[in-house]
Amino acid sequence: MKKPTIVVLGAGYGGLMTVTRLQKALGQNEAEIVLVNKNDYHYETTWLHEASAGTLHHDRVRYPIKSVINSKVKFIQDSVLEVKTENKKVILENGEISYDYLVIGLGPESETFGIQGLKEYAFSISNVNTARKIRDHIQLQFATYSTEVEKNEDRLTIVVGGAGFTGIEFLGELANRVPELCKEYDIDFQKVRMYCVEAAPAVLPGFDPELVDYAVSYLEKKGVEFKIGTPIKGATPEGIIVAKGEDEVEEIKAGTVVWAAGVRGNSVIEASGFEAMRGRIKVDLDMRAPGHDDIFIVGDCALIINEEINRPYPPTAQIAMQQGEVIAKNLTKLVRNESDLETFTFENKGTVCSLGEDNAIGVVFGKKVTGKTASFMKKMVDNRALLMIGGASLVAKKGKFNVL
Amino acid sequence: MKKPTIVVLGAGYGGLMTVTRLQKALGQNEAEIVLVNKNDYHYETTWLHEASAGTLHHDRVRYPIKSVINSKVKFIQDSVLEVKTENKKVILENGEISYDYLVIGLGPESETFGIQGLKEYAFSISNVNTARKIRDHIQLQFATYSTEVEKNEDRLTIVVGGAGFTGIEFLGELANRVPELCKEYDIDFQKVRMYCVEAAPAVLPGFDPELVDYAVSYLEKKGVEFKIGTPIKGATPEGIIVAKGEDEVEEIKAGTVVWAAGVRGNSVIEASGFEAMRGRIKVDLDMRAPGHDDIFIVGDCALIINEEINRPYPPTAQIAMQQGEVIAKNLTKLVRNESDLETFTFENKGTVCSLGEDNAIGVVFGKKVTGKTASFMKKMVDNRALLMIGGASLVAKKGKFNVL
């Protein structure tokens, strides 16, 4: 009997967790494991805001996939175009592969909700490439300001669209980085403006209001100006247009606009004909796509409802890794012809939102934390992801220890 | 009797050498010394190619003026607009000052010879601000290439206009930096092109031909393509237009164009009504401007003919510092009412052209040198400038020792 082929698409938190658990659980003869990823490295999505602000080098936020997989896994570096579910094939940019079992762990895409100009003129914190582009772009704005005879101060304005997790964490880094940049480029800090523009009426929706207040007043003290309840109507080469009241609009001129207000699932989901909401599939309890016994969904493309509040769980590294563990177990059962698949339940270990190098807010094991304690917790959360996927040696190589 | 005021304009090699010698030679009661400079720091013009390529941080190429002047010198941070010789005044952007003796040590300006588009679309290695802009611009080109879906390889092309000293030294740094950038931005080195475009029929005119051959073949091996005898006709947002044969032109598309083929004296010279050739005054033997007993010219704005070849000495740090020493001596004599002013004679200690971190070519004390020896010599030349102006402590702080 031919051994089954398990194909995992994407080496993000979910995909890599699935693969690293599978390579431990399964014997060489039980299954062939194939991992497909665009890059030959994994990157820490949850650290990209640091690379984007320039507070952490982008090589610190990635590691080679080869360093965490073993000889049981065949790695293919390629981009996924489509899944042909009817003949169990994945179409890649440079070829195709057949699967017996498939795990879709493809990453998210930026969602601009049709707002004009955002795609062209705003950056998004999506991957290592876009992160270093944001960093380099901001630096060039500062460098250009220093050289130009007629100074354009708007160059020094940075607009962050979105007061969610990514937006706030990015602003936390920026608030630390901008004074450094000012020193580096001989620019008066007073000339720089940092805006957080959010359509919703609140910062960090879902977070404890007391912690949100703490975050907002901390960032304000560091120079961030909040424009809450202010929808972005469009982006231009000169900045953004925002709504002002019911009918009016206002222009905010800015040399840098970063859109951090929306992600959706991967468009491969729709291209492959799955039923989905913005690229996310409402998965069965065992993490399979409805109607597809051979396909699991992990991470950003998986939609699971939090029954307590009747809203989807936000796509986080934490939930993706927990899903990956369950999927690896369920695949092991399927390969061994066991039928009692496990059910996924999210165990919320807490959430910490970083406010820069030495501050954060969060709820950990049900307790509210702020300041250095929260910042320490955040770094431990970051290190835990490394530990779960690559073990202690990866923590030693890539971990965050510059605390307390 | 009121003590005379000596005003020195510019804190480059010549101006700072004059001031630091004067503060040693003159007593507190003999003269008031005023130094005017745009920035509160001095920068090593001869190291700017490194900061521009990104091989040396721009803070390594500058030091605070306060660190080398003492309490005898009054420092004014301002820009010079004009010298009113008839009433012995200097007009600054934010005020004016009177002088009894004046030393003009203002820096050079880029000379584009009327070539269309160069001012708008080409960078020049002129100061700390332009250096970091070039560095950041190149990085953003590499970052953008990594993010774009339809790859524009021309982005990765860097054109250097000019095969003189600055052009070649910059290419030497680039040739080392580009492979690092490729690694940093995940780009195949084969996709990057580096051009040296020069209108004259030779590289490094005036240099020993054997050394020139060494330099060209070394840089070619590192990926630089030379287009010699090729005048640049214009620059555009997409690159440059060069002459091809008698009547035709050719486009070289490039994401970065650096113009390193021409400098002129400072335009304040013409604005002040001095007789000059491209902003440079043919000085008297004692370094004074003809017809102006109270005005000395040092550095880039001073024109002195090398009688051996009947051509002007190129404006270098070496000649500027030697001039500064003589000017300080002559000012001391004038303040003390002595009339036997010294005559300036250039003592050529040799010239070394860097080809990057660990290679160079040069003639030192009449001997040709290449490779590590020449590179070591170059670093010693660089350190000597620090020593002459700021003493051993400045060498310890800012010197170059990463050799052999």
TrEMBL record, chains A, B:
<keyword id="KW-0560">Oxidoreductase</keyword>
<feature type="domain" description="FAD/NAD(P)-binding">
    <location>
        <begin position="5"/>
        <end position="324"/>
    </location>
</feature>
<dbReference type="InterPro" id="IPR051169">
    <property type="entry name" value="NADH-Q_oxidoreductase"/>
</dbReference>
<comment type="similarity">
    <text>Belongs to the NADH dehydrogenase family.</text>
</comment>
<dbReference type="Pfam" id="PF07992">
    <property type="entry name" value="Pyr_redox_2"/>
</dbReference>
<keyword id="KW-0274">FAD</keyword>
<dbReference type="InterPro" id="IPR023753">
    <property type="entry name" value="FAD/NAD-binding_dom"/>
</dbReference>
<protein>
    <submittedName>
        <fullName>FAD-dependent pyridine nucleotide-disulfide oxidoreductase YumB</fullName>
    </submittedName>
</protein>
<keyword id="KW-0285">Flavoprotein</keyword>
<dbReference type="GO" id="GO:0003955">
    <property type="term" value="F:NAD(P)H dehydrogenase (quinone) activity"/>
</dbReference>
<dbReference type="InterPro" id="IPR036188">
    <property type="entry name" value="FAD/NAD-bd_sf"/>
</dbReference>
<dbReference type="GO" id="GO:0019646">
    <property type="term" value="P:aerobic electron transport chain"/>
</dbReference>
